[in-house]
Amino acid sequence: MYIAPPERALLVDALALDPASEITLVSREPLGSGSVAGFSVASVDGSLTYYVDTSTRRVVQETGLLVGTPEEPSVRIWLHPSDPYLPALAAVAFSQAAETLLDRLGVRATGMPQMVAYRPGRRAVLRVPVGDTFAWIKAVLPSRTSAIVDAHRALADAGVPVPALRGWSDAGLVVWDHAFGTAAQDADWTADGLLDEVDALRDRLARASIERSARTDLVRRLEWYADRLDTVLPDAWRPVAAGIAARARASWGEEPAVTIHGDLHFGQVFLDADLRVSSVIDVDTAGRGEPSDDTAAFLSHAIASALLTPAPRDLRLWELADRAIRRWDAAGSGLRARAATHLLGHAIGAWELGDRERAELLLRAADDVSLGRVEPLRAATET
């Protein structure tokens, strides 16, 4: 049985919508002490995307509806892209503002900005055509801008192949050049060859002098995922999710902290013609953390990607995941616990978006990983 997210009712009430309106959940993830959920709302002019934020976090300036007070917010609702945590996003999401920003940095935009990634309350990534290449604009929390710039410089000094930094604004904007090379998901690597390159990259990351903590937040996310799955899953799957969470808590492990990427997966890695790592992107999450935070992110992303890839092309991703767990699953590393946590997050996202089959496959994969194994899985239509 489908259980609508509680934020839907809050949105209907705040906007005085007909409860029967076409309102579709498009995203939901933890934030602060609550969550932020995105909904597509049908209108006469098309669809609008609203976000319902129950994090109870304060912001400098509200951009939408507020329940409570600015000092003690209960619920806030905003229309995308007016994210109150990312005050620079609304302006730069449109062509003229993006062109003005890039022009100040000596970069001439030749097309409209395109938003390619967005995590409400956290960050947004926009791609802007610049001649025959692209510039990348990232909207971030203003309070984190200088730390992101400092981390980028430290990584470059340590020999990590990060894209060139064009400039930044204290308002919460950072601009990079396009990454050099071919995105790893589009390259013809072998599993062991790619993992060798990833390990070499991890060694270079570990040499970077960064004092802040990496932005992983996995322990809190495990509890949020477990609580939400216990609410939305049917009886047959609830014990499975609970068992995965219990094994994760019991095997979390502890390792000496080093500098890590914080969100490492093959979607962040670019390769040159010799299949060597030529660039790594999205390093704003980098900082001090446990090595298995990165290996678990890489493993879980390979599995989640395999489940989205049609047969027989999925086989190389399953091989990559199998080789990864065999290589990195050292005693006490916490790889299994962290990778299973990521997969629980993927599962709840699929379930709440109505893809029950994919959610069940992700739960099965999380169960396997929590027990130290990877088994290729496919939807019934793929077998």
Could you characterize the architecture of this molecule?
The chain is of the alpha+beta class. The protein folds into 3 domains: 74 residues; 89 residues, Phosphorylase Kinase, domain 1 (2-Layer Sandwich); 201 residues, Aminoglycoside 3'-phosphotransferase, Chain: A, domain 2. The protein has 11 helices and 15 strands. The strands form 4 sheets. It has a 5-stranded antiparallel β-sheet with strand order 1-2-3-5-4. It has a 5-stranded antiparallel β-sheet with strand order 6-7-8-10-9, covered by helices on one side. A hairpin with a 2-residue loop joins strand 1 and strand 2. The model has no long low-confidence stretch (mean pLDDT 93).
Q: How many distinct folded domains?
A: 3
Strand arrangement, major sheet: 1-2-3-5-4
Oligomer: single chain
| DSSP helix fraction | 25-40%
Which CATH-level-2 architecture of the largest domain? Alpha-Beta Complex
Helix count equals 11
